[in-house]
Design goal:
With 374 residues, this protein is an alpha+beta fold. Helix content is 41%, strand content 19%. It contains nine helices and 15 strands. The chain has a seven-stranded antiparallel sheet with strand order 2-6-7-1-5-4-3. Strands 10-9-8-11-12-15 form a six-stranded mixed sheet. A two-stranded antiparallel ribbon has the order 13-14. Helix 1 crosses helix 3, helix 2 runs antiparallel to helix 3 and helix 4 packs antiparallel against helix 5. The protein is globular and about 85 Å long. The relative contact order is 0.10.
């Protein structure tokens, strides 16, 4: 559950100290591990770095670390250990050093979280608590596990991890199914013929953004006016991000509420972003975020996500007769099938129908909750 918080100036100072301390420890022990690995010591674990942290906090040079919550400092080490774990399991890239110039900063408190009277209380913020806007109620029977405070541009947020104590829903008997084709002209196209428009949030704000960025470039470095101009740019970026996420949440909610089986094409978004002519448009539609939202919302509601083979030629096959009509240029939005003589077939709807048919051909009515890779 993610909420906006409104800390006082004193609380902001303490929050920023936590950001700096956890970032420092992450970088310090990333460097420490690299040096140990260079010496041939491959057994540097979380427990070893935790013991080193205890020694570090006793040194006069690093006494300032004691101003922050000890568990939050330990979570920085845990985060680094998890990053190395993913790297060794080939689930992620090699850990990178964190920069204080990045617009997103965060730290985590792993326990002792309390929410009451529109305030959230956690270690080092127990006296007055942090003012929070609870736009969604936390279930009364939920257990608060941990909280992460973050700063995105000039706004502060808290993400509370909860255990709602609700069992995983049983698989729903499939009654409805849909195929989804993702595009740029239209954001999402369903096999039922529904086309969700591409709102092009970034493109609509680009003219204003360029104007603000030009003003920023003319300000003297280190001046208050430059900082104000920078905040205006960040504020616009935040607005675009919020618009995009809001639209994705509405579409993913509508689809997961309406259909029991959802068939998706598997997209290699990272590779598609290498096309410099389309990279900006692809980033603006946020296909990866949309698929992520679909998957977790489907699991909440007992629905099934089917991901089809990324090499399946959905746009080349006629959805009426099943014949292959060959590759087509992107500017061809309708085509005529030379085999069944069907004319004026909408390219995107045709692809969505093929995705649905291909996905349903791989499963029966004993579908399970979650994601099926084909």
């Amino acid at each position: 559950m993610k909420y906006r918080i409104y800390p006082t100036s004193t609380q902001i100072t303490l929050i920023e100290k936590h950001f700096g301390s956890t970032r420092f420890l992450y970088n310090y022990f990333l460097d420490y591990r690299q040096k140990e690995y260079a010496k041939g010591n491959k057994k540097v674990s979380y427990n070893i770095t935790q013991a080193e942290l205890t020694k570090l906090k006793k040194l006069e040079e690093y006494k300032w670390l004691n101003e922050c919550g000890s568990q939050s400092l330990q979570m920085a080490l845990r985060s680094l250990d998890n990053a190395f774990g993913k790297f060794f399991k080939k689930q992620g890239g090699y850990p990178k050093f964190k920069s204080k110039k990045h617009t997103h900063q965060s730290f985590t408190a792993p326990q002792n979280i309390k929410v009451a009277n529109n305030r959230v209380y956690l270690p080092k913020f127990t006296k007055d608590g942090l003012k929070v806007k609870l736009h969604r109620d936390i279930p009364k029977e939920a257990t608060l596990k941990q909280a992460t405070i973050s700063r995105q541009n000039n706004q502060y947020f808290i993400s509370i991890l909860i255990d709602d104590n609700i069992s995983i829903p049983k698989p729903t008997k499939a009654k409805t199914a849909v195929g989804l084709d993702m595009g740029i002209t239209h954001h999402i196209i369903t096999s039922g013929g529904v086309k969700y428009p591409n709102n092009r949030h970034y493109n609509k704000s680009q003219k204003k953004l360029l104007k603000l960025q030009r003003r920023l470039s003319k300000k003297q470095k280190g001046s208050n006016n430059r900082q104000k101009a920078k905040l205006r740019v960040q504020k616009l970026h935040t607005k675009v991000t919020n618009q995009r996420k809001d639209n994705l949440h509405k579409i993913s909610n509508e689809i997961t509420n309406q259909y029991d089986i959802i068939c998706l094409e598997t997209l290699s978004v990272a590779n598609m972003m290498k096309n410099h002519k389309l990279a900006k448009s692809i980033a603006d539609v946020a296909w990866s975020e949309f698929m992520r939202q679909l998957e977790y919302k489907a699991s909440w509601r007992g629905k099934t996500i089917i991901k089809i083979d990324k090499w399946f030629p959905s746009s080349q096959i006629c959805s009426y007769c099943g014949a292959s009509t060959g590759k087509k240029l992107l500017n061809i939005r309708e085509f005529d099938c030379p085999h069944c003589k069907k004319k004026g077939i909408d390219r995107d709807i045709n692809a969505a129908v093929n995705i649905k048919n291909y996905g349903l051909g791989q499963v029966d009515n004993r579908n399970t909750v979650g994601t099926i890779g084909i």
